[in-house]
Amino acid sequence: MKLPQDFSLFRDYGMVLVLVLLCGMITWATWEEQHPSDASAGVALANGLYDLKGEELHVAIMARQTKSDDEFVKAIEDQIAERGSSVKAVIRVRNPRDARIELEKLGVSNTRINAIATHNFCFSTWGVLKQATLDGLASSHKSFKDIRPYKPKSRMGSAFLSAENLIAILNQNAPVAIMAIGMTLVIITAGIDLSVGSLMALSALISAVTLRSWFGDADASALGIITAFLLGILVCTACGVFVGLMVTWFQIPPFVVTLALMMVARGLSFILAGGADPVDIQATGAELLYSGTILGVPNQIALMLCLFVIAHVVMSHTALGRYIYAVGGNEQAARLSGVPVFWVIIIVYAICGASAGLAGVMDASHFTSGRPKAGEFFELQVIAAVVVGGTSLLGGEGKILGTFIGAMILGVIQNGLNMQGVDSYTANVVYGALILVAVLVDQLKRKLLN
Fold it and tell me: Sign of dihedral through CA atoms 61, 64, 67, 68?
């Protein structure tokens, strides 16, 4: 049985539809009352309070000592100041007991407070913000007359569709997506690389240990940080070259070579760390690869998108891309046609190693440490992203865009599972099932199209 030509559109771009459907399903599953606590919610709350009380507004802000509350608090302060008034007190505490102590201090100092601006978490869970408790404080302190707690208005929506969550999906999955670029090239040549997760950890440890041993860690300059990071990437690239040589010169199956390298690299990571504990990075600026932005876009996301564009151009418009497809389609025919098979295989494994090294550097920047356990089971996620994206494990077929979509599908599934409170073990079951289904679909597609 052969499918009609019109099916080719679905064959090439069907995974985009799958991604859209997944997003729709998770949006529906997470559609509920939302309680915003970002900067825009802070601005809206401040304006609402000022419109309600005008010149009689005497507001205190109450929030947790967390980074997530920083923008909310600052937005309220700035907006109140812009309206010509000022915040009487900012209470940033860890628990409701400390919040009550701070309120008591304001009462003793006779500070006039008639409104407490907070967000839903504190409003709904901290007993000190219950109206009965505040009325009790008001009876003891006249400056608290008519005191009331206020929070931003809630709205119906999906937490999944928030800008913060969508950016978080891209940011959290950037290392896996970048490694999937190299894995796509390897699988198109009918190879496999099981070592990417371990190489990721090795790169992070090499970077951290180099900063500590060669550049004085905390005293390291920007050049020192870059050098340490590049060394981690170069070592992983060399490992990729080694795999390519083993596969070409000695005809060892890539599964065996990369399985051995996976164990060696993981063991070396623990040796460099001196155990299971991370090697901390204290160098100022090492975190910028993760926390920095370019035109408002997180560095990791910008780097990931640039690499996917470059990889797409290479695979679609260069001789190297054509050679990679040729080797995967029929290695013997490619060799007889003049394709430098030896160098093509070495290059694709080197790129795969380099992508794992870059992911390790990104992990080190994220956690400001080299973690010997970094990248555990990431080879499963990377292979899943590539196969789900439509690249055939038999070689000769696959698209870089498909790999990007595959990585995003996995990221969306993981995000949805996290929102539903599903544990990581169940997530691994989902990843394994996805690989099996993707391979089954690939086989059925081949039979139907031939």
Answer: negative
Other beta carbons less than 10 A from residue 176's beta carbon: 24
- 353: which 2 tokens? 């190693």
In the block, tokens 């990071």 appear at: 229
**Euclidean distance between CA atoms 86 and 91, whole angstroms:** 14
Residue 237: closest CA among 309, 191, 286, 182:
182
- Residue ranges of the alpha helices (H) in 92-162? 96-108, 120-125, 131-140
Domain 161-449 has CATH 1.10.3470: yes
* CA dihedral over 400, 405, 406, 411, signed as positive or negative: positive
Structure tokens at 280: 């901390």
As a whole number of angstroms, the distance between CA 342 and CA 397 comes to: 20
Number of H helices, E strands in the chain: 18, 10
39-156, what's its fold?
Answer: Rossmann fold (3.40.50)
Of all helices (H) and strands (E), which one includes residue 90? strand 89-93
Sheet of strand 148-150: strand arrangement: 89-93, 59-64, 115-117, 148-150
Please give the backbone phi and psi of residue 83, each rounded to the nearest 5 degrees, phi first: -85, 5
Q: Which two tokens stand for residue 304?
A: 């990931």
Contact 357, 236 (CB under 8 A): yes
pLDDT at residue 314 in the model: 97
Structure tokens at 124: 């709904």
Contact 138, 110 (CB under 8 A): no
Helices (H), 54-130: 67-82, 96-108, 120-125
Q: How do residues 2-60 score in pLDDT, each as one tens digit?
A: 445 555 545 556 678 878 888 898 899 888 888 888 899 999 999 999 888 888 899 99
This prediction's pTM: 0.83
| CB 90 within 8 Å of CB 74 | no
Domain ranges of the chain: 39-156, 161-449
Helix or strand (DSSP H, E) at 315: helix 299-317
Q: Which residues of 429-447 are buried (b: 16+ CB within 10 A; e: fewer)?
A: eebeebbeebeeebeebee
Please list, in sequence order, all residues whose beta carbon lies within 8 angstroms of the beta carbon of residue 358, skipping any fewer than 6 positions away: 178, 203, 233
